[in-house]
Amino acid sequence: MIGILGGTFDPIHYGHLRAAVEVKERLGLAQVCMIPCAQPPHRDVPAASAQQRLAMLQLALASHAGLVADDREIKRGGVSYMIDTLASLRQDYPQQPLLLFIGADAFGHLTAWKRWQDLFALAHVVVITRPGYSNPPLCSFLSAKLAQSSQPLSENLAGQLYFQAITPLDIAATAIRQMIAGQHNPAFLLPDTVIAYINQQKLYHPIDQTGN
Ligand code: ATP
């Protein structure tokens, strides 16, 4: 089984990384593909460039076998629709169950995603818990997909909806960006290597009045 965690990763943080490690172990995944978007469909342009977000992801994953930085959305360019990404992953892994992980916050907007119902023809959707977000009531389409255990995920290539609890970590990229802009220390919310890169690239920092 292959896991997929897409995101803006602006920047990658321990909320993403811990989620990836836990779902990989708990569900027995061969690998988790972490896929930074080029242009997110439903939100503002990210503060860091696609190449910078990918570089931060690669730094964060440097020593973690089984967690893979996948640059297919950046290479494809344009608005990153998950339906296109899953179609491309399905070509790469024709015989493996694909598990698309989304946080409870993102799941609340799933029905606004492009061709959202077709996602289930290509992958399972696994909702991971996130502090501050509860699960919305399910429409009849989603209720019919709901699996009560993880077993159907390994028995089918796609088509199930599953809820997976993970260690709650109340970390968000928005808060990290604000912290850095406010000249506060984000240590222990994201890897030191990523913090060093942010400082070196002057990402998220307040605008330097001298123009430097
Ligand atoms: P931002 O604050 O900029 O919206 P974010 O921290 O939510 O960013 P994203 O890159 O948008 O990060 O998230 C990618 C995916 O990871 C989404 O499905 C999101 O729900 C999930 N996710 C992000 N942070 C957490 C967390 N702390 N716990 C569980 N899931 C998370």
Q: What is this structure's SSE topology?
A:
Blueprint: E1 2-7, H1 14-27, E2 31-36, H2 50-60, E3 67-69, H3 72-76, H4 82-92, E4 98-103, H5 104-107, H6 119-122, E5 124-128, H7 140-143, H8 151-155, E6 161-164, H9 173-181, H10 192-201
Bound molecules: adenosine-5'-triphosphate.
Please describe what this structure looks like.
With 212 residues, the chain is of the alpha/beta class. It has one domain (2-170): Rossmann fold (3-Layer(aba) Sandwich), CATH 3.40.50. Helix content is 36%, strand content 14%. The protein has helices at 14-27, 50-60, 72-76, 82-92, 104-107, 119-122, 140-143, 151-155, 173-181, 192-201; strands at residues 2-7, 31-36, 67-69, 98-103, 124-128, 161-164. It has a 6-stranded parallel beta sheet, sandwiched between helices. Helix 1 links the parallel strand 1 and strand 2 (31-36). Helix 2 (50-60) runs antiparallel to helix 10. It starts with a strand and ends in an 11-residue tail after the last helix. Adenosine-5'-triphosphate binds at residues 7-10, 15-16, 19, 102-103, 105-106, 128, 130, 169, 171-174. Residues 7-10, 15-16, 19, 102-103, 105-106, 128, 130, 169, 171-174 line the site of adenosine-5'-triphosphate.
